[in-house]
Write a structure and sequence with these properties.
Peroxisomal Thiolase, Chain A, domain 1; 2 domains; alpha/beta; single chain; two-stranded parallel ribbon; 10 helices; 13-stranded mixed beta sheet
Length: 338
């Protein structure tokens, strides 16, 4: 049974489905265009906790609990959980989901972690290693700013190229029974590290766009298709700046995705009324948008087939302070109506 396709893609022979999902976000996200679609909107971005980091752990814990409840499952029904976040040693995950006592495989792909976890989770089910798994990731504006940029108390000015880290968590239950599933996973393309030498940590979109272009070009080659195959080609958090870079890079390769392209970072905030500059970012950005909006469109058959491709900037505060560049990565998942 060969499920490998081309250089870096896979087409599962055994069906894999998103059985159900859940999304929880902060106050700013709840005030955005998708606010009414999220399962839960926090009244306070501390979520009743003492620290920002504890708040992010709470996001993951509640997202997993809601996803399991909606799927009618318990932690004992889940073989593995694939989870990660942006913080050092994935501490939001470690402290957030430990109480479930589900065997954990930690993920880190920066803001592409949702795509990475869905890919590995689908591989696990298609390979017969599990019947049901959970994929979850999170981010928090305040904890990410402290980890990668400046403490909020510093009050630094943000350039127009900067994105706003989404406070939120998205959790997904995957399995092989599609009777009541939200969508089917019919293909995956694993990205590679792409580094154009950019060093501006306030311009994540431009740093990640080359990786998105690379993964998309490889996906088209592996699957023998083009942009017309999809109702939507959805990147994670390139924002307005990264979107322009992506479209330009692909046009040089002969691909025009301007009609199909959508970016979660652009969709989640209102650029006219919310001061988020280039758009949204963070692990939670693509995860909550997928759960609340994209899967809804597939369920209602407004879209039949989409390519979901979260993007990640592989930097750390150490690498940035030592003057290193910001490499990017992107992983693509094919989602179809059931």
């Amino acid at each position: 049974m060969n499920q490998k396709l081309g250089r870096s893609s896979m087409r599962p022979e055994k069906p894999v489905f998103v059985l159900n999902s859940a999304s929880i976000v902060g106050t700013k996200e709840g005030q955005g265009p998708l606010g009414l679609l999220f399962d839960k909107v926090g009244q306070d971005d501390m979520f009743g906790c003492r620290t920002w980091e504890e708040a992010e752990s709470t996001l993951q814990k509640e997202a997993v609990g809601m996803a399991l409840d909606k799927a009618g499952l318990t932690p004992e029904d889940i073989s593995f959980i694939f989870a990660g976040d942006l913080l050092g040693q994935s501490m939001a995950t470690s402290f957030g989901i430990s109480s479930y006592q589900i065997p954990l495989l930690g993920m880190y792909g920066a803001c592409s972690t949702c795509g990475e976890s869905l890919t590995v989770g689908a591989m696990c089910i298609a390979g017969g290693f599990a019947e049901k798994v959970v994929c979850v990731t999170s981010s928090h504006f305040a904890s990410a700013e402290k980890e990668f940029r400046f403490p909020l108390e510093y009050g630094n000015q943000r350039p127009l190229s900067a994105s706003w880290t989404v406070t939120g968590s998205g959790a997904f239950v995957l399995g092989g029974d599609g009777k009541k599933a939200r969508a089917g996973i019919t293909g995956m393309t694993v990205g590679r590290i792409v580094d154009f030498g950019l060093k501006d940590s306030m311009n994540m979109g431009a740093c990640m766009a080359p990786a998105a272009a690379s993964t998309l070009e490889q996906h088209f080659a592996d699957f023998g298709c083009g942009p017309e195959e999809y109702d939507k080609i959805i990147t994670g958090d390139l924002g307005k700046v990264g979107q322009r870079v992506l479209l330009d890079l692909l046009s040089r390769k002969g691909y025009d995705i301007s009609e199909q392209h959508m970016d979660c970072g652009i969709e989640i905030f209102d650029g006219e009324t919310q001061d988020t500059h280039a758009g949204g970012s963070g692990c939670g950005c693509s995860a909550v948008t997928l759960s609340a909006y994209i899967l809804k469109q597939l369920q209602e058959r407004n879209w039949k087939k989409v390519l979901f491709m979260p993007t990640g900037a592989l930097l750390s505060k150490t690498s940035f302070n030592e003057g290193m560049s910001v490499p990017g990565i992107a992983h693509a998942v094919v989602l179809e109506t059931v």
